[in-house]
Design a protein that fits this description.
Elements: E1 4-10, H1 14-25, E2 32-38, H2 44-51, E3 57-61, H3 68-78, E4 83-86, E5 92-93, H4 98-107, E6 114-122, E7 127-130, H5 134-142, E8 159-162, H6 176-187, E9 191-202, H7 208-212, H8 216-229, H9 236-246, H10 263-282
Parallel strand pairs: 1-2, 1-4, 2-3, 6-9
Antiparallel strand pairs: 4-8, 5-9, 6-7, 6-8
Amino acid sequence: MVKVSICIPTYNNSKVLERLLKSVFEQDYKDFEIIITDNSDNESVLEIASKYSCSQLFYIKNEKNIGAVPNWNKLLSLANGEYIKFMFADDWFSFKNSLSKFVDMIEKTKDCSFAFSGTHQVSLINSYSRSIEEYQEELLLKDYRTLFTGNWIGAPSATIFKRDKIYFDDNLKWVVDLEFYIRYLTINNSINYTKEPLISIGINDSQITNDCVKNKALNNFEYSYVYKKLGLESHYMSKRYLTKLLVNNDEIKSKISELGLLTCHYHYYAFKRAIKNILRGLFK
């Protein structure tokens, strides 16, 4: 059995795919397969994949665009490796030994099933390194549910995990990776990580992130959905975080009890919001 399945979902992003594939084949760790599932409406991704055609690379063109998350799940269903290494087409391995370091994080830690790294965030304007902070490490290792209050792991490209019969929730678009991490780590709860930026994340204006981050309705729905699905009513930090998020929705007050939130938290954050708006008006 192959050790690592490098899973690459694509959609009309052939220009950046070549950069990723080049970084994959430059890795000093060679026990991998590459699976590309393509939602594109043209043949541009196939053209790039064909340039790197070999026994390790498998290209699958979807008959129609099945959507982003179903495409991720298709990759999981096709993977043969012991470990899953997602790589979005915009991203690439920062170093020639990045993949070997990912594998080492799992294999050199007893019973480890999930590992992640820091990243380089790269745009046309600037770049910077990002990694989990010390207080976040403590919270994460104490209780994986604290990820609900902030995705300190990062994008799937920054992770590697043992293959299991766990799939992404295709009811979600924005917090889909966060929900997956909490659910996966609840079942497979041995984790390792490095702050070293083993992965470079390409940032551009066309990504789903930019459509979602300012969409309050989407955020309200998805966080409420995950909160209920994962039974986070018993987790105090998640309870407070969701209340703080939803206080910006004037219609949510009637749903406080339904979501198992505390009215006192709602009024506290509503008061802070009111004061902030008053101060903003005074200093315009």
